[in-house]
Amino acid sequence: MMNGAAKDAERTAAGLGDSGAERWLTDRIYASLLWASLIAYRAHALTMWGLLGIPLILAASVDGFYVREIRKTAFISQSPIRHKIGVHSFRLVGVAMVAWLCLPVPMPVIAAPVVVCFAAVSLWLWVGHLQKRL
Predict the structure, then answer these.
(1) What angle do CA 128, 59, 129 make, to 5 degrees?
(2) Is the pLDDT of residue 124 over 90?
């Protein structure tokens, strides 16, 4: 879909005059289409890794929940610092996902699975170190 739109834009640009404003506008539209196709490609890759990472994220959250349940009955204090680290790292993962989608710089292929794994670990920290409430 995006490739067809880019080719149509290129054909239209070839028919324009030599006006500087028209060329500049055409170049901006073409760059925007390329950027949109990059965002769509990365969103697709992140969705695929997200679907493959759902079992990992679910396992990490359930494990964190049971760690919390075990600690509720034991005489062990919860760590509010670890809880806060989990919350902030989960937010950082969200910001990293948006940045990875929108920044037009080359990223390694390993970026999407690392983000999914980091989300699972931060979710485990978040859930596993919630305060005790009986």
Answers:
(1) 5
(2) yes
Burial 29-50 (b: 16+ CB within 10 A, else e): ebeebeeeebbeebeebbeebb
Predicted TM-score (pTM) of the model is 0.72
Mean pLDDT over the full length of the chain: 84
Please write down the HEC assignment for all residues of 80-117.
HHHHHHHHHHHHHHHHHHHHHHHCCCCCCCCHHHHHHH
Question: How many other CB atoms are found less than 10 A from the CB of residue 74?
Answer: 9
- Give dist(CA 45, CA 37) in Å, integer: 12
d(CA 23, CA 8): 15
Amino acid at 85: I
Give the three-state DSSP class for 43.
helix
List pLDDT tens digits, range 3-36.
676 677 667 666 666 677 877 887 888 888 888 8
pLDDT digits (tens, 9 = 90+) for 85-109: 999 999 999 998 888 888 888 888 8
Residue in this structure with the two tokens 């834009």, named with its chain if needed: 9
